[in-house]
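Section 5: illustrative case.
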């Protein structure tokens, strides 16, 4: 009995470790835009767009933010590995207790990073006087650009840093590889999925934030 349980725990741990390295790396890439959004849109608070060193650095940071942002929703496409893992594993117990929770947390953390990043940008734009319709349009543009980025990463195997190391190849792909019927269909579906999931997660996230603020307001001593 104890020996069988030990073997099950060992098998579960080994199965968990099979996905740990690439999941940790992909989550690291997904959290980069979130960290940048906190710095650029919450901490720096650029007051006026005048040409100076701080503004220049801010715009460079913003470009880096946009380049790395698709890494966050990219985790949604990593669910194809779950299908592969299920096919390779004949233990229903391992699938339910290891694979499903592992992929759920992985996807939740990665996509939450995307949602929070865009929320931070939307709040920044609102603080600059943008109207709600303009902010919604900006969010849609971001979803579209992210859908393109996800396609470039998943199907053409480009990474964020290839904009520097392989810029000519990246430009050629943007010009010639994205105009076919298949890429357009895939990117359109990805855009729709991102838009719907973002809206749902945004409502949940804002609701949680509002609830936390209400609790802190009702219990001011709890934050001391």
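Designed sequence:
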């Amino acid at each position: 009995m104890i020996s069988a349980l030990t073997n099950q725990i060992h098998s579960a741990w080994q199965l968990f470790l099979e996905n740990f390295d690439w999941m940790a790396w992909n989550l690291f890439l997904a959290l980069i835009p979130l960290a940048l959004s906190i710095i650029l849109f919450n901490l720096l608070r650029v007051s006026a767009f005048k040409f100076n060193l701080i503004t220049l650095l801010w715009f460079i940071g913003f470009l880096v933010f946009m380049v790395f942002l698709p890494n966050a929703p990219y985790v949604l496409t990593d669910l194809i590995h779950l299908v592969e893992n299920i096919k390779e594993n004949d233990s229903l117990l391992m699938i339910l207790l290891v694979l499903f929770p592992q992929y759920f947390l992985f996807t939740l953390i990665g996509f939450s990073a995307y949602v929070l990043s865009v929320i931070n940008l939307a709040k920044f734009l609102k603080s600059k006087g943008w109207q709600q319709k303009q902010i919604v349009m900006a969010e849609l543009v971001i979803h579209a650009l992210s859908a393109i980025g996800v396609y470039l990463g998943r199907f053409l195997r480009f990474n964020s840093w290839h904009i520097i190391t392989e810029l000519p190849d990246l430009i050629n792909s943007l010009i010639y590889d994205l105009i076919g019927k298949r890429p357009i269909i895939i990117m359109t579906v990805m855009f729709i999925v991102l838009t719907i999931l973002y809206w749902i997660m945004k409502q949940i996230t804002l609701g949680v934030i509002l609830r936390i603020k209400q609790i802190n307001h009702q219990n001011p001593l709890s934050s001391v």
